[in-house]
Amino acid sequence: MVAEATRVLIAADKFKGSLTAVEVAEHVAAGLRRVVPEVEAVSLPVADGGDGTVDAAVAAGYERCEVRVAGPVGEPVAAAFALERGKRTAVVEMAEASGLRRLPQGVRAPLTATTYGTGELVRAALDAGARTIVLGVGGSATTDGGAGMLGALGARFLDGRGRPVGPGGGGLAEVDSADLSGLDPRIAATRVVLASDVDNPLTGPRGAAAVYGPQKGAGAADVALLDAALARYARVLDRTDLAAAPGAGAAGGVGFGALAGLGAAFRPGIEVILDVLGFAEAVRGCRLVITGEGSLDAQSLHGKAPVGVARVAGAYGVLTVAVCGRLTLAPSALARVGISRAYALAELEPDPERCMAHAGPLLERTAELIARDVLG
């Protein structure tokens, strides 16, 4: 029988562009076993609300439910949400429907990309019986304030002539009135949790358009138009109070749409996902937690998965180390967030292209080092 002292929990996020969170765990476990064959390596892939959130929930035992919805520019895409076996909680990842990766040929559409498909995913989760919906946001192609999502759920946004406004944030420049009376009535009886790793407001210099618009193809003039359109949208909804709320600017303002239209409560994405995955139960009795993501840098300190994992593991007195492709944080910064040491693949392979191409084998070699340093 394997002793509890050799139980290791692998709770890493994806290495974007190289490996999924599930693959990261598989390679780390393989490396550990080469040095400590009797190790009990437990895989619990994590995410912070963005890309990979549904996959993490499925790996933890949720059912993967596929549905055809509208992509960010209206073309149909095959998306999925995760449903708890008891049918009461669903994890909806907006990037599944409205993410940058869903843009045909990767062509950005900063003014017209819509979250309509995200609303269709929410409706599908309601149809499946969910009464708690975790809405993970991140990696979006959109800056429409969640208007598309609300439209798919029955809201109407009209211009001065009573006609529906166009899709995307650009369409909101013409919005004159909003009618939420047609929203799916099940929403009123559903707990919606907005899970995000950013706390930006809807508008202004830290808002959705200014900070994230350029990533979605918005030039300076587009950013100005989108910011003004989002401000107009908030006024029409008479919820300018929520425009400044933490998370309102998440994922092109879909956070605002969830707060104002769905009555959502904002929580840091990694906290929510760790609860969904049962991380606190999994970490008990472990000797070590191995977390990580593609790049451990200054952004990691602001709500990213490794820091959330280390915080909870530390509360249970369990040591945490991290694996990553690239490391720019000093040991003192890591220590402040509960990570005792970080192992970067770049230390084994300095060439970035080769490092990404061979991330799996490099992770296994890195895990061997961890096993010798910590478990040996």
From TrEMBL:
<protein>
    <submittedName>
        <fullName>Glycerate kinase</fullName>
        <ecNumber>2.7.1.31</ecNumber>
    </submittedName>
</protein>
<comment type="similarity">
    <text>Belongs to the glycerate kinase type-1 family.</text>
</comment>
<dbReference type="InterPro" id="IPR018193">
    <property type="entry name" value="Glyc_kinase_flavodox-like_fold"/>
</dbReference>
<dbReference type="InterPro" id="IPR036129">
    <property type="entry name" value="Glycerate_kinase_sf"/>
</dbReference>
<dbReference type="InterPro" id="IPR004381">
    <property type="entry name" value="Glycerate_kinase"/>
</dbReference>
<keyword id="KW-0418">Kinase</keyword>
<keyword id="KW-0808">Transferase</keyword>
<dbReference type="GO" id="GO:0008887">
    <property type="term" value="F:glycerate kinase activity"/>
</dbReference>
<dbReference type="GO" id="GO:0031388">
    <property type="term" value="P:organic acid phosphorylation"/>
</dbReference>
<dbReference type="Pfam" id="PF02595">
    <property type="entry name" value="Gly_kinase"/>
</dbReference>
<dbReference type="InterPro" id="IPR018197">
    <property type="entry name" value="Glycerate_kinase_RE-like"/>
</dbReference>
